[in-house]
Amino acid sequence: MKILFIILFIILxxxxxxxxxxxxxxxxxxxxxxxxxxxxxxxxxxxxFGVKLSVESENDKLEKTRILLRWKxxxxxxxxxxxxxxxxxxISIFLENEIINNQSALIPVYATGFPPSLSFIxxxxxxxxxxxxxxxSYKNDEKDPKNVILIINLSEKGISKVKEINKFxxxxxxxxxxxxxxxxxxxxxxxxxxxxxxxxxxxxxKDVLLTIACFKYPLxxxxxxxx
Length: 227
Fold this sequence. Notes:
Elements: H1 2-17, E1 21-30, H2 34-49, E2 54-58, E3 66-74, E4 91-98, E5 119-120, E6 126-128, E7 133-140, E8 147-154, H3 156-166, E9 174-180, E10 186-190, E11 198-204, H4 205-216
Antiparallel strand pairs: 1-3, 2-3, 4-5, 4-6, 4-9, 7-8, 8-11, 9-10
Helix pairs in contact: 2-4
């Protein structure tokens, strides 16, 4: 009995008190800019998860010009971040116009993730980049705890871009604004009014945080890398 107690004492404490060091994200980057990329991605991930992360690098014999960077954190759920973490801010917006007729009564008039019938797109998407945005922030929605409201304050260049979108807003028709966020999140919203110097949309918290992180910590341009 005494021997069994000693064995349990040796085994159990380590298993019960062990802290998982999950891999949050890993990516191959060009060696020549690995230090810079490491700092930026670390800031992005810490902004998203709200905790300090450790980072390590690993050389691969098959990779002569690239190095593997790996970020780890303790007890973080949903450990593998979205691959779009290595992209910069890019929010694409375009309008869809739906003709109002007798059949429109069959089509629900509210935000939907599915393209409605009788939908027309007569222009190319407008892309907003870092230089088009002054500030990004978000606020909680008390009625919808699963989502938050992303607030985008536009620069003069950004305002001129959304004015182009406004040209395609049609009176007496149903106008949908379709957003593609940096995270890869895509959703369609009923557009009640014209875009001004601020745009607000509702989206899942992780997608919003990733989009803001891409804006706050932009990656440098590097044309010689594979990705």
